[in-house]
UniProtKB/TrEMBL annotation:
GO molecular function: hydrolase activity
Signal peptide: none
InterPro entries per record: AB_hydrolase_1, AB_hydrolase_fold, Pept_S33_TAP-like_C, Serine_prot/Carboxylest_S33
Gene3D superfamilies: alpha/beta hydrolase
Family per similarity comment: Belongs to the peptidase S33 family.
Domain AB hydrolase-1 as annotated: residue spans: 77-230
Protein name, entry field: TAP domain protein
Cited Pfam families: Abhydrolase_1 (PF00561), Abhydrolase_4 (PF08386)
Species name: Streptomyces lincolnensis
SUPFAM superfamilies: alpha/beta-Hydrolases (SSF53474)
Compositional bias segments (type: Polar residues): 488-506
Key word Ion transport present: no
Keywords: Hydrolase, Signal
Length: 525
């Protein structure tokens, strides 16, 4: 874990009650750019650790940009924010810049940064790698009837580790403070208003920014959007649809396997039954991996949870990987246990959401909600509900027991009254951020405009030429799609497992062996 980069610059105490209170209170950081290879420039930004004390301790944020080739033609700076929480914005820009449409690269300096508590910006650490490895190795794809109490105890241990290892920064990693950071960075870059693309959790960050600073919005594209009211104030109402969306996507894949057995190659006519049996078989007799680790039913569920996000284009690859797992072939990418790169993502993923969300402390309700989620999502739900603290919808056991402060969370309103038009993108079969969340956000915003992508998979930009063009036209020229715009150009399953990444996906797991965060945009151009 990198040491917390905090410095003390004064003792003035100040409490921000509204965005206007922050005006002029926190110093705008000075960015000293240096070359960091590939034409990118990197810098560090000092921002307040606690915005109630804007002249006090600071935290260092790592930032990156690539300037438009013709500065005389640039329209400004485009902020790009990845999902998570836990993904690096620096890596997001560096890894995706070449695949951005030319109009975005030509029209903007493309900018990203690691938000507080993530990556190079004082990354949160809770469990260390050996502890996380042990936890996921012991988890089950088919948990037993007595799995609930051990899950609660394990989550409490995770919370204690968070406080012990990152307690100095934890109260301040919530999204209200992230939005304030963005506003300081906007000023540091000389921009009067914000131009922004955020995907998945990045859409929630953009939503909060718009709510806090509506008059400072030029254009925000929010892809794979959250229902912000449910996410932060009614988290159980946010969790259950995510369980159902994930299981629904897995179910539709297995139905395709049954209908196209020749291409899928898994299930022998009963893919659902074969999948449930495979989880139990792997739990009972784990496969030894090439590195000497163990892969069981939980490993399978964990990998599917992220890979199903790629949409139909990866379905033949998933079928082949399941068939290999059934044959106990450890080259199946679904049998690669979570790695230290996963843990770098998962630690802040849990911690940030526990700061952002307001879970009721009622333990009886916690048990009812968790057990109901597991029952209603039988394919992937039980492993996540009763597993160690890992990803998104599985955070209730940790967050109900969270003892840290919530001073940096934002609890509404989410109207963003008076903002410029905000583009919201939702994918109908999204396994990670349910489509109905995008609908809800578009209605909560005073000036939201919904674009629908009829497809499987997570997010739309980079996977749909139609949606990508709409985002480009909006961000570059402020052309808002017509109401009711629907994109129907989903990439269909190929006839066999591809050996190179087809348009609309990266197949990161298939090509690279392991890609623990799957936060790369598709390549359409």
């Amino acid at each position: 874990m990198a040491a917390l980069a905090v410095t003390w610059t004064g003792a003035q105490v100040w409490a921000a009650q509204s965005p206007a209170d922050a005006e002029g209170s926190a110093p705008v950081p000075t960015l000293t750019w240096t070359d960091c290879q590939g034409g990118f420039q990197c810098a560090n930004a000092q921002v307040p650790l606690d915005y109630r004390d804007p002249q006090g301790k600071t935290i260092t944020l790592a930032v990156i940009r690539k300037q438009a080739a013709d500065q005389s033609q640039r329209k400004g700076t485009l902020f790009m924010q990845p999902g998570g929480p836990g993904n690096s914005g620096v890596d997001f820009v560096r890894n995706n810049y070449a695949d951005l449409p030319a109009a975005m690269r030509d029209g903007f300096d493309v900018f990203g940064y690691d938000v507080r508590g993530v990556g190079r910006s004082s990354q949160v650490q809770c469990w260390d790698d050996p502890t996380y490895t042990q936890a996921v190795t012991n988890a089950k794809g088919v948990p037993g009837p007595d799995a609930y109490e051990p899950a609660v105890k394990q989550a409490a241990d995770f919370d204690q580790a968070c406080q012990a290892n990152s307690g100095e920064v934890l109260p301040y990693v919530g999204t209200a403070y992230v939005a304030r950071d963005i506003d300081l960075l906007r000023q540091a870059l000389g921009e009067d208003q914000l131009t922004y693309y955020g995907r998945s959790f990045g859409s929630y960050i953009g939503t909060v920014y718009a709510a806090m600073f509506p008059d400072r919005v030029r254009a925000l594209a929010l892809d794979g959007a959250y229902d912000p009211e449910h996410y932060t104030n009614q988290p159980y109402a946010y969790d259950r649809p995510q369980y159902l969306a994930l299981d629904g996507a897995m179910g539709r894949f297995l139905d395709w396997c049954k209908a196209d057995q020749a291409t899928c190659g898994f299930g022998d006519g009963d893919p659902r039954g074969a999948f449930q049996k495979l989880k139990a078989d792997l739990d009972a007799n784990p496969v030894t991996t090439a590195s000497g680790g163990k892969a069981n039913g939980y490993t399978l569920v964990y990998r599917l949870m992220f890979n199903i996000n790629e949409g139909k284009v990866i379905w033949p690859s998933l079928g082949e990987a399941l068939h290999k797992a059934q044959a106990r072939d450890n080259t199946s990418f679904l049998l690669r246990p979570p790695s230290p790169a996963s843990f770098d993502f998962l630690n802040p993923n849990v911690a940030v959401e526990c700061v952002d969300k307001d879970y009721p402390t009622d333990r009886a309700r916690l048990k009812r909600e968790v057990t109901t989620n597991a029952r209603l999502a039988p394919l992937l739900g039980p492993a996540m509900a009763y597993g160690p603290p890992t990803y998104d919808h599985q955070h209730a056991t940790a967050c109900v027991q969270w003892t840290g402060e919530h001073v940096s969370r934002y609890d509404g309103s989410f109207r963003a009254k008076g903002s410029a038009p905000i583009l919201v993108l939702g994918t109908t079969g999204d396994p990670d951020t349910p489509y109905k969340d995008a609908v809800a956000l578009s209605r909560q915003l005073d000036n939201g405009r919904l674009l629908t992508f009829k497809a499987e998979g997570h997010t739309a930009f980079g996977r749909s030429a139609c949606a990508t063009d709409a985002v480009v036209n909006y961000l570059v020229d402020l052309k808002v799609p017509a109401r009711g715009t629907t994109c129907a150009d989903e990439t269909q399953p190929p006839s066999k497992t591809p050996t190179t990444a087809p348009s609309g996906t990266t197949l990161g797991e298939l090509l690279n062996g392991v890609n623990d965060r799957l936060d790369k945009l598709g390549r359409l151009r």
